[in-house]
Amino acid sequence: MLKFPLACLFILCSLLASAQIPLQSGFEKREYLHLLRFNTENVDIAGYTPGIEGPPAEYTLAYRSPEIGLKNRWVHWISEGKPDVLNVRGSIADLVSWVANIYAAMVPASGSLQLEKDFRFEYSLSKNPNAYVHVGWLVATAYLSRDMLPHLKRRVNEGQRDFLLMGHSQGGAICFLLNAFIREQMRLGALPADLRLKTYCSAAPKPGNLAFAYDFEWANRGGWAFTVVNSEDWVPETPVTIQTVNDFHPLNPFVGARKMIRQRNIAERVVLRKIFRNLTRPTQKAQQKYEKYLGRMVSRLVRQTLPEFEQPRYVKSSMYMRAGTPVVLRPDAAYFERFRSDPEKVFVHHSLEAYYTIAEQL
Fold it and tell me: Is the Cβ–Cβ distance between 335 and 140 less than 8 Å?
């Protein structure tokens, strides 16, 4: 008499066990540690991964992209009943890969890039006209997104709705922009609006200016995008931030300082104008040099790899800011016993091993 109910119960339990639990918002230590393990199969720098296990056994490699753009690559992992993992490779031991990092002039967060004769990348990573991003990582995003989008659409058609996007170092910087690109595809209807995207930007440099960071954090509000940093790691300090008076909000009284100075008497105007010039010109000149050397000059190196690339018009800004919900990893004495600061080993606190070790202590 009990065989039929027991059989039904067994079938129900089996279905529940195989059902996918929707991706949840919020930082999860175990999730982050698992994602770091995927990077062990997607790095090309010696000494980066010792002591870290490979990707979790339940995941299968579905796709490894060729090297595209400025030596960029992404890898797609899948597992039944679990979110897909989209892992973006960081810098490798190749000059072209580092050109992507030092090509650090800023361009609008919406616009287009002419990369090849038959490849114009139309993008909208922010609706704010004052939002700017790092042009080198935007070039990488263009190639990666073109390769990634068909795979996302295929998986969506197969019923997948949950995706974990993760990158370490340069890969983390690119993930900021890829996140914004994917969310724009959701808004346009190219990807479903109910797609769940969670992003971990690990050891990432700063991707754009404050306006871009505000938009990124608003789009991922509620715990859907994190920037994970080791407080001893210097890489998240980069690129150099130069804030000029042109970067202020229009309502900032400093923006209207010239108008207020004109309203003073002639003696006061002379003094105040000199003070204003001394305060503003140094940063403006620094920004101009930044654009010259890390924009126009480095673009020549980009053209050696992408000969049909057309240099875009840069914006007069270099106000780089960190984006995403910060998760700060603070080392303890045991960490410093294992990872000693050494001027000869500048990436000692930036490696996957260092991040994995300190994250385990959370």
Answer: no
Domain of 152, CATH number, reads 3.40.50.1820
CA atoms of 28 and 31, how far apart (whole Å)? 5
Distances (CA, A) of 266 to 99, 257, 271, 278, 287: 50, 15, 9, 19, 31
Distances (CA, A) of 213 to 177, 206, 269: 11, 9, 37
**φ, ψ at 183 (rounded to 5°):** -65, -35
pLDDT in tens, the chain (362 residues): 445 555 544 444 443 344 568 999 999 999 999 999 999 988 765 445 567 889 999 999 999 999 999 999 999 999 999 999 999 999 999 999 999 999 999 999 999 999 999 999 999 999 999 999 999 999 999 999 999 999 999 999 999 999 999 999 999 999 999 999 999 999 999 999 999 999 999 999 999 999 999 999 999 999 999 999 999 999 999 999 999 998 988 888 877 777 777 777 877 676 667 877 888 899 999 999 999 999 999 999 999 999 999 999 999 999 999 999 999 999 999 999 999 999 999 999 999 999 999 999 99
Angle CA(153)–CA(125)–CA(254) in degrees, nearest 5?
170
Residue 214 · residue 319 · CB < 8 Å: no
Q: Within a domain: residue 16?
A: no
The helix (run of H) or strand (run of E) holding residue 17 is helix 3-18
Question: Does the residue 12 lie in any domain?
Answer: no
Say if residues 87 and 63 touch (Cβ distance below 8 Å).
no
What is the C-alpha separation between 135 and 295, in angstroms, rounded? Answer: 8
Say which amino acid occupies 215.
D
DSSP per position, 35-62: HHHHGGGS--STTSSTT---S-TT-EEE
The pTM assigned to this predicted structure is 0.92
Two tokens, residue 349: 């606190």
331, 358 Cβ separation under 8 angstroms: yes
Per the domain annotation, does 201 fall within a domain? yes
Count of structural domains within the chain:
1
